[in-house]
Specification:
By secondary structure, the protein is α+β, with helices and mostly antiparallel strands. It has 14 helices and 16 strands.
Length: about 425
């Protein structure tokens, strides 16, 4: 039906927009404190960017992307995530030219064809940060702290920080082989998706929602037993920095994240009452992505947080305040000439910063007064024939019913 939005999308109505605006204000505030600057990338990109960046064989690329051919016979994809887009912008616009660490943040819509459910829509919104150009594990810790401090700063409780390492191109092949050998002995017990992952991406089996609770998963090889010295040292230092900041965390050996570009650090922040969709933020290091897309080898780390899930978590803990804005005054007029005078007054007051409403339906004086009371305005500014002839306005306090007649020039001071 034309009157229904496409499945997996949702209108953000006026009574909810204020929640989003307030959350975005908090995002900009904390990113400013951490020294991150905002970037805005296109909603669609060349499909190859995501195929190379995210990795073929991942669920995102194989099953979930919105891909189409444009009129120039080019394959285009609505962005399923924003890290690859930020990296493309970093390279195209030579943001690396001055050297050193480049710190960026973004908010916006992402698109994945998935089964819609609470906290997971086909058009969803993310807040994320990317720190590009530095391999120091202190940057990993800073990115994790930004995400954690943002969420706790909103007042959220029951958050769990999970961290892991996914190794690097030197040590991860050893781990992948061990996983292939182990899960190869349990092929009959794996779900259909995991049987296909066995050859393409066996690490993804570890965070499968179907197989995750099965007994044989507990004895799966641990990546900590396969790490090279560099990855082990990096992970140890990330933990040291987090402990120095006084943040509690837990090592989760099954945390591998869903995108191929991660190296070394991976993390998630979970709000456990959300159940299966408990991850409200997650990310990690992706030192190989920039080179994969066509740049010079460049270390980088970042995260993304789901705005819809954050709002669900805030609502569940009664942390969303009703910020509905009532008008400062409602103009009530009687007669054509009074309506013109009222319109001029409304415009003058709006230019001076007031929120002013009025009736445009030509209702009776009594009906307008009812509408004024219903609007939530504190004052009714009444203009009739007498007020027009004397260049005055009758100001009525809608809470106390007190009223007085004053010159038009004094209305601004009266409202203030």
């Amino acid at each position: 039906m034309l009157t229904n939005a496409p499945r997996g999308t949702k209108d953000i109505l006026p009574d909810k927009v204020g929640e989003w605006v307030k959350l975005e204000k908090n995002i900009r505030e904390i990113c400013g404190r951490f020294g991150y600057e905002e970037i805005r990338t296109p909603i669609f990109e060349h499909t190859e960017l995501f195929q190379r960046g995210i990795g073929e064989g991942t669920d995102v690329v194989d099953k979930e992307m919105y891909t189409f051919t444009d009129r120039g016979d080019r394959s285009i994809t609505l962005r399923p995530e924003n890290t690859a887009s930020v990296v493309r912008a970093y390279l195209q616009n030579k943001l690396y030219a001055n050297g050193g660490l480049v710190k960026l943040f973004y908010t916006g819509s992402m698109f994945r064809y998935d089964r819609p459910q609470a906290g997971r829509l086909r058009e969803f919104h993310q807040f994320g940060v990317e720190a590009l150009g530095e391999k120091n594990p202190a940057v990993d810790a800073e990115v994790i702290l930004l995400a954690y401090n943002f969420l706790t700063g909103l007042g959220l409780k029951e958050l769990e920080l999970k961290i892991n390492t996914v190794g690097c191109p030197n040590c991860r092949p050893v781990y992948r082989q061990k996983l292939k050998e182990y899960f190869g002995e349990h092929t009959d017990e794996l779900c259909g998706d995991c049987r296909s992952r066995l050859e393409k991406n066996p690490m993804r089996i570890l965070d499968c929602k179907v197989d995750g609770g099965k007994e044989f998963m507990e004895d799966a090889p641990k990546i900590k037993d396969c790490l090279c010295d560099d990855c082990r040292e990096h992970f140890d230092k990330v933990q040291d920095f987090l402990r120095a900041a006084g943040v509690s965390f837990e090592i989760d050996n099954k945390l591998v994240r869903g995108l191929d570009y991660y190296t070394k650090t991976a993390f998630e922040i979970r709000y456990t009452p959300l159940g299966a969709q408990s991850a409200v933020a997650g990310g990690g290091r992706y030192d190989g992505l920039i080179e994969e897309i066509g740049g010079a080898p460049t270390p980088a780390v970042g995260f993304a947080a789901g705005i819809e899930r954050i709002l669900i978590a805030l609502e569940s803990q009664n942390l969303i305040e009703n910020d509905s804005k009532n008008p400062d005054a409602f103009i009530v007029t009687g007669g054509d000439e009074a309506e013109i005078h009222g319109f001029k007054l409304m415009n003058d007051l709006r230019l001076k910063g007031f929120s002013i409403s009025a009736d445009f339906a030509g209702r009776s004086f009594k009906a307008q007064m009812k509408q004024a009371a219903k609007s939530g305005a504190k004052f009714a500014l009444i203009i009739g024939e007498d007020e027009v002839s004397s260049s005055t306005v009758t100001v009525k306090n809608l809470e106390t019913s007190e009223q007085k007649n004053i010159p038009v020039a004094e209305v601004e001071n009266c409202l203030r």
